[in-house]
Batch of 2 targets.
Target 1
Amino acid sequence: MESTNAVPALAALAQEHRLDVFRLLVQAGLEGLPPSQIAERLKIAPPTLSFHLAQLRHAGLLQVRRDGRSLIYTVNYEAMNGLMEFLTDNCCGGDGSCRVPVCEPRSATLVRRRAARPARPS
Amino acid sequence: MESTNAVPALAALAQEHRLDVFRLLVQAGLEGLPPSQIAERLKIAPPTLSFHLAQLRHAGLLQVRRDGRSLIYTVNYEAMNGLMEFLTDNCCGGDGSCRVPVCEPRSATLVRRRAARPARPS
DNA sequence: TTTATGATTCGATAATTATCAAATCATGGA
DNA sequence: TCCATGATTTGATAATTATCGAATCATAAA
């Protein structure tokens, strides 16, 4: 994740409806949900939801696949983890004391420790 | 961190200058930096920077203290960690496979594992 | 008190964004 | 082919946001 991607991603999340949608899909996991169900659960008008889903997708935070007449939206966990890493990059001067969040559904490798840098002269 | 706080926090970060400022302060750690140095490093006009610092502060992401004529801005790590937790809340249906990011400068307890929920019937 | 410096606030302007009714598109079934 | 359903796109409107010159505020030193 770079600055170029991070700002649109954060902007996408910085809206009540979109944040709700994103969090719902984070919880839904790889299975995902169609707009009809999201709209019903969160009480969002279909055109408005469609607009927000497009924003999240263009920001790289969501992926979409088709299943018959339904579209299925899922979280792009790689982008989500990349954003977390970007925000905490070189946290506290990179003393190695902080950890990066990693969310990988049904995977074994879940937490990576940052490479520690030599302490700065004080 | 709740939804009420998360949207303003994300909105605060969803702007190029503010994201740069925040990340610079994340790296600066508890020591922090005065606006004059931030402005110089990031090439931001003082009134504009002041506006952005206020946004970040009102969002709860920054704290400020005074040192003579200078103000010193620092990251509110608790708010930062709360935001991370909120975004990854119940990740992947809460199967316990994901971890929460925690950044605590000069602290020992750095990663907390989520409480796993019983698996849903499939 | 006067002056200098670091920082914020005011005010005006330009640009971006959220919403939803109506129309359109895409797929599957009759 | 025609119809029904799930979803998106268009278009218009209302609301919010970023920027910076000029003015103001706060602290420290002369």
Target 2
Amino acid sequence: MSEIASIPSKRESTDDRRAAIARAARQLIVEKGVEGLRTRDIADRVGINVATLHYHVPTKEALIELVAESLKFEFMSQHVVRPRAHMDAMGRMDMEFVDFREMIEDRPDVMLVFSELIERARRDERIAVAIRPMLRKWRQILIDILSEGVRDGVYRADLDAEPAALMMMGAVVGFCRSGNKDFDGYERLVAELKRAIRNPNYQPQDTHSKD
Amino acid sequence: MSEIASIPSKRESTDDRRAAIARAARQLIVEKGVEGLRTRDIADRVGINVATLHYHVPTKEALIELVAESLKFEFMSQHVVRPRAHMDAMGRMDMEFVDFREMIEDRPDVMLVFSELIERARRDERIAVAIRPMLRKWRQILIDILSEGVRDGVYRADLDAEPAALMMMGAVVGFCRSGNKDFDGYERLVAELKRAIRNPNYQPQDTHSKD
Amino acid sequence: MSEIASIPSKRESTDDRRAAIARAARQLIVEKGVEGLRTRDIADRVGINVATLHYHVPTKEALIELVAESLKFEFMSQHVVRPRAHMDAMGRMDMEFVDFREMIEDRPDVMLVFSELIERARRDERIAVAIRPMLRKWRQILIDILSEGVRDGVYRADLDAEPAALMMMGAVVGFCRSGNKDFDGYERLVAELKRAIRNPNYQPQDTHSKD
Amino acid sequence: MSEIASIPSKRESTDDRRAAIARAARQLIVEKGVEGLRTRDIADRVGINVATLHYHVPTKEALIELVAESLKFEFMSQHVVRPRAHMDAMGRMDMEFVDFREMIEDRPDVMLVFSELIERARRDERIAVAIRPMLRKWRQILIDILSEGVRDGVYRADLDAEPAALMMMGAVVGFCRSGNKDFDGYERLVAELKRAIRNPNYQPQDTHSKD
DNA sequence: CATGAATGAGTATTCATTCAT
DNA sequence: AATGAATGAATACTCATTCAT
């Protein structure tokens, strides 16, 4: 289940090996970037021979696709775990920010690798194919929340959901890219984003909210 | 900078060569990324031998620094050209957006290369040294404008200038990174950013605004 | 042939497997040459795992020997099938040409693989050991026929059987090597070979001819 | 001009290097076959680094083409050196055999490499492109001599020049392929070939022969 | 008998960099 | 200042072979 460098664990199933390889590759991408990624290093970290690596993942291209897929899986499963249909727009947006913070705290490699792959996707169609759906889905979730929020009056009436979604994504991705580990900074950014979209005239009449 | 006006050709060509090399390198970074950058390709594009390239720029590291410097020069000179001290915050912010649009229209490589280098700066301190001042200066300019705007009442009173600046930078950089060439999209984004920070109660005709 | 009739499945399969492997190997040698021969490809074509292939044929060298043996078997059995002792030299030579034509028509791989192995035999003594007897036997058969034909006056009196045999072998092997599938060409070649050796003064109606 | 393994000879011109590489490659093909040819070995024998080898000959495919070309050059220049127009068919054919013997004695690699490439040409169109003209030219020369000889009555009237040419080529190539260094054998073969085509009724002293 | 996984020893090719001219 | 030639150190990928099950 978990081989961290030192544990040799001979003769694993391909699925387990591929998972371990994806994990090691992601770590290494964080450390050295996609350009600094070496099959040898990955094999070493997994504790297998390079040839064994190639047995499970035939080419480096396939390897990067594997990384992209592993990211996609992790990234997209997020919204499946906690059902949010019953919440209002603001609540769901809050959940987004909480989830995101959780991610950059617990699995900081996700966003860094994601950012690397975004850069690479511009020139590599195969990466683009794996990355674009993630961006698209994220954007759509935000657009949906924002649109609903505008309809319900919690967000500015003049809010244009599409660019607003891009703005939010750009803001948080930009934060992660900078390598900033300062979570206060993250909270200040989130607070500002919330103010940027909220309807200043909104009266939380029936629910009588706290703030 | 280093060439003495009276000596016309022999001595100054190094600087010319370096400029040409920087230009070619930037083009190639756009096409293939920093990771796909090859000294041979640069030399070919400049029309010189690889050995000659190394004569002018000794190592690849120095080359990337040269690129970063050339970017810095271009990026930072922007705000020097047009004096803006006399304008109000909103006007200056508008100028920012116009300048930025001009840049991505006229020299689309600037932002793409910039984005590449941001990614690289995370692992390469020498790049970081060249890149960080640019980000810092940009952020400071935005913070200044935003702070002034808040003071003058044109921007939201509850606007937190620092994260707001990051938000704006992230939004436009994110737009460029996506490789989007749709300038309508850019204008929609800019419009949304303006609404995101503006003071909804601001009376533009009135010079001394009220709450 | 080697499996004992009463034991039906378990024991005989190794021989069957080896035969199937030899067949697949020969096909692949025709397609890609000995140098392009891959154990994996053979295993795939036979429908077994590479490890299984190695169980039946331990090394690649053994594999090539197996191919050579299979060729030898096929090649040398030819002259056993039809008893020819009763025929005269010319008739037996005709049979040789007919047999050969049958072979390159029905099992075109035999000569192509043979030619590959001849080339390889020059450097690989183990292959030479398997190939040389075939060449030797073939040459001897031709020498015998030619010698008899000379004795009987059907072939030129000044014919030197040994080099003549080499000439004939070289001619037909050369034809096959070229990858030529034109059987008219083959017949023209054969006709020329026959004229090249025949005794121009031979009187066919006369059974006991003298010079 | 001549670097034989031990002489390092730094900084040669590309043409010289390519010639040396072709020479070394041919030696190695004789020793280990095309399939056993290793870029490293060639570089070692030339006395250069592998990377230097690739500088002069970019890929292995190009290397084999270079070998084929070098062969072509040597093989085809043969008939240019000594003008033979004034000779009669038999004389010219004799010259062919003498030339050929000279070749297998002085440059025994030529025919061995040639034979290797013939084998390879069946699957590699690029090699075929270099090899086929050689075969074609050789065949044409023989056909021309044979046709003239038939016309002049020195060769059999029923001789079919085309297959006869193939027969002769096959015979001598077959001789070389066998790795036979026995020149007596060669002479016996040649003698037999001559008898195989000659007109038994030809009167040499008589200039205007009769049927 | 069969197989999925593993591996050592290659193998061509790449690339930044250096050197002699 | 410029260049053709040269090179060391990598690098992804291959392949026959082995091992545990």
